[in-house]
Amino acid sequence: MNIMDYGWLGKLSWDSIVFSKLFTNFSVSEVVASTAGSIVIFATVAILFLLTWFRVWGTLWSVWLTSTDHKRIGIMYIVFALVMMTRGLLEGMVMRAQQAAAPDGFLYADHFAQLFSTHGTIMIFFVAVPFVVGLVNYVMPLQIGARDVAFPVLNQISLAITASSGILLMVSLVVGEFSTGGWSAYPPYTGTDFNPGVGPDYWIWAIVFSGAGTTLTGINFTVTILKCRAVGMGFFRMPMFCWTVLCSSILMIFAMPPLSVAALMLGFDRYLDFHFFTNDLGGNMMNYANLFWLFGHPEVYLLVLPAYGIFSEVFSTYSAKRLYGYKSLVFATMSIAVLSFTVWLHHFFTMGQSPTINIVFGIATMLIAVPTGVKVYDWMATMYRGRIRFTTPMIYSIGFLILFVIGGLSGVILANPTVDFQVHNTLFLVAHFHNVLIPGVLFGLLAGYNYWFPKAFGFRLDERLGKWSAYLWIVGFMLTFFPLYGAGLLGMPRRSFSYMDLTFKPYMLVAFIGAMVVLCALVTLILQLLVSLRDRKKNRVPVGDPWDGRSLEWSISAPAPSYNFAELPRVTDRDEFTETKEQGRAYQPPKVYRNIEMPRNNPLGFILCVLSGILMFALVWYIWWLALITALAIIVVVIASTFRWDSEQIIPASQVQQDTERWLELVKNTEPVGRDLENTPQNNGYAKLEH
Amino acid sequence: MSGNSSSISKPPSVDPGAIHKDPDMVIFGFWVFMMSDLIFFGVVFAIYITMIGATAGGPGPRELFDFGSLFAQTMLLLTSSLTVGIATITMKHQRSQGSFLFWVVITLLLGLGFLTLELYDFSEMAAKGGVPQRSGYLSAFFGLVPLHGLHVTFGCLWMLVMIVQVLMVGMTDLVKLRFLRLALFWHFLDLIWIGIFSVVYFGGWVYG
Known about the structure:
heterodimer; A: 691 residues; mainly alpha; two-stranded antiparallel ribbon; 20 helices; B: mainly alpha; Four Helix Bundle (Hemerythrin (Met), subunit A); disordered N terminus
């Protein structure tokens, strides 16, 4: 059927709505699908209702949606990531239940395939990436002593198109179906010959738009770090987190384009009958595999490097010691970033290259373990003879150290092509990458969430529930994924919706129990947030330094003022804030108060979020008139926004003076607390000098 | 706001919060964007190279390319790079707004001329059966060359907006800064075209 032959609503019809299948084909699988769809609808209605009930639309618009403040954008990224994580995690639960129930599962094969495709796509592109980007957005400009990122409106646009792509994925739960081709969406299976439905189209547009958002973010962060550091902050005085962010942002700039190209070419194949990756007429699927993993491998380092940065900050702060081996950590980070571009082929050792090529890429893969090993030793040496406080971020970090080494070692095993031939496409691989991504990336992000939360909101998170959650994540992770190593070695293929060989069954049952523990971890995480919100008065840390922090973000009030610093700092040391505290230079008023120029609020991001969302939906469903209108509208809106001449606002010196003096007065009246009382209500964010 | 590399602190009268207008940073940011765009092009180039010969029995470079028209396109685009350079120089030496606009309009016309010829070429190719649906090779061709053309179209649109803005508010710092980036972008497209000419057309003709 020609693509122009569709009517006003394109491919859309009543049968596209998920609930219609309940009537045509009543089954457990469809009930699960409809439940998921109704959760989306119910949650949307509930949120809209609550926003109206509490009359916060105005605040939402003027304080959040149109904000160009890097801190607010960062928080919105993280909220988005947590929402998506809840969905991704629940999908994981359903898949574990299905495999535990096999051979008598309750899902159709296609439904299971949609689950693993969305689970992977969501967890990588809509949880890990936005969570990383959110934390970086909040923390990095503060750490380098800047007022904002280099391009605040661009930052807003990045968030906008990432969010609209995520919303598109949510829509796919209700309207139509998602791709069954896995998160890597290999053609020709995802081509029109085998997949004429809308599933792969949902994947393509979500990836293209969110990928563009990530590329723009990479550009923004790179320029911010290279050009906006405070006076005196040489490269080797940057906090470790900023180094990892710099490397990760460079990876975004270089690694995202291959993904966009791959997804767009797949789109051309599907929409316009091109032959990039088709079986016939000269198409070449291997080009897709190469492009995808040319992105895919740097991507995992793009995610894990900032997590390494968070661990570095956490180990150093909670051991009350300078980070050990700073320069070796910097060089290790750089080496990993470079090496990450030389290993992509290990994702398809079995796809027919010569043994020589496989060996080259196998060795390159093993080499990455070396700088990573350097890092592990540096972190342990940082703790050595430090005054360690066993707080929530430290539990995540120590859990990471132990578990990540195991995951790394299973990676080295997989790097050997001969071994890989045996276990490729089995659950061994699934166990491996969850073993690096959960302890490596997720634990890092959750540690960072607990660590920086007081800075962002002015009160600490509940420590007891935080610890519970951390332990449950660790135990849940081990129970879920260690059995998969065993099942994989026994030969259980990944992505199987069922199996006949009952040898696998006990492994799947343990994994299912583990998944339940992970669910408890998520519930505790949410509970922790709710309890902390309830106790926010008790746990206030308005002075802003609850953990005796070492870098600049702790030197200002919590929450941070919109302009960050009343006077931009001059940096003399790597652990700048520790240095100023020890020399008694902390909490001083600026020599002179000046007007501060900051970017004004801008509705552009929100408008683009709506328009790009509609555009993607129209493209997925072949509603050409709508796609054309929204595409034109996007161009018009972007051009119109360049005619907005007064994009800056002035925060008057008097305002800055008033804020700062009030805060300094508060500092004066606050009792400094030692580290033993860190997690008690006595901690108002003023750290006592103890060494 | 000064970066570390050039750590000259600004005099106190200048507000240190005004980081968003720092020309150095804005231009640098655009270079970084072009770097990313270059990777985008580079990847598509790589795909094209692997697809040379994947004509599946359909028409190939020797049947489809018209080097006369390509020579004309190259001349138009290279000349437009020269004229956009002259426009930048008139801006730098603060010549009249009229002479600046004159060179911008010339550039715009050259760009449009290039696009017209390119579209004409595509239609000629289609008439000979050279459509992207025919083979992997032609898909790769039409993935790459129109991608450049799309960039040129975008550049032309940008130039139109610049002309309107100059007429509206004159040569303000912001307008100048935008034009500097446009000029960089235009030169960048020229470089890509040289790559396309050498790899896609010439390379395709030799190895296809």
